[in-house]
Each structure stands twice: as C-alpha cells, then as structure tokens.
C-alpha cells in the first residue's frame, strides 16, 4: 500500500458491526495468540468511535510498521495444530 492510496481511502470508519474477535473473548483463546490484543481493540475502538480525533499519521504508522509483524504472528499461530 502506498501513502497516496492510503490518503485516497482515508475516511473515518462508520461501520459499527461487531468485530470478528468478539466470540473469543469468553475463553481468551485469541488473547493467548495475540498478546497485543487490548491495544489492537483500543485502536479499533478509536477508529470506529473517535472520528475526527483519529490521527491519520498514527494509522499510517500502524499500517506500515505494526500490521506486517502481526500478520506473521497470526500466520504462525494459525499454522499450528489446535488453533
């Protein structure tokens, strides 16, 4: 993803559907796989509910620097039996 593509697509989120992780809150299984889950959920909540208070620079930084390692972590966890 390029910065110009990001800028073209950047709009405050307006979709209030329940997130995919909500079903795993009860047993904590997702939190075991993703230790940063509370921070991820916090960012999601800020994006969904913060509207004008969301800093596009922060979102860009997360997109470029935090999501790729998270994806590797998830791929590894999902490739192991029992996950």
UniProtKB/TrEMBL annotation:
UniProt entry keywords in alphabetical sequence: Hydrolase, Nuclease, Toxin-antitoxin system
InterPro entries for the chain: HepT-like, HepT-like_sf
Example of a GO MF term: RNA nuclease activity
Keyword Hydrolase: yes
Protein's UniProt keywords contain Magnesium: no
A Pfam family that the UniProt record links to this protein: HepT-like
GO terms for cellular component: toxin-antitoxin complex
Family in the record: Belongs to the HepT RNase toxin family.
Protein name: DUF86 domain-containing protein
Upper lineage: Bacteria, Pseudomonadati, Verrucomicrobiota, Verrucomicrobiia, Verrucomicrobiales
């Amino acid at each position: 993803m390029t910065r110009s593509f990001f800028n073209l697509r950047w709009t405050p989120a307006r979709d209030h559907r329940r997130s995919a992780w909500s079903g795993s809150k009860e047993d904590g299984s997702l939190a075991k796989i993703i230790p940063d889950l509370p921070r991820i959920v916090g960012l999601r909540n800020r994006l969904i509910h913060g509207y004008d208070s969301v800093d596009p620079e922060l979102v860009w930084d997360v997109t470029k620097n935090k999501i790729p390692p998270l994806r590797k972590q998830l791929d590894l966890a999902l490739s192991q039996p029992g996950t």
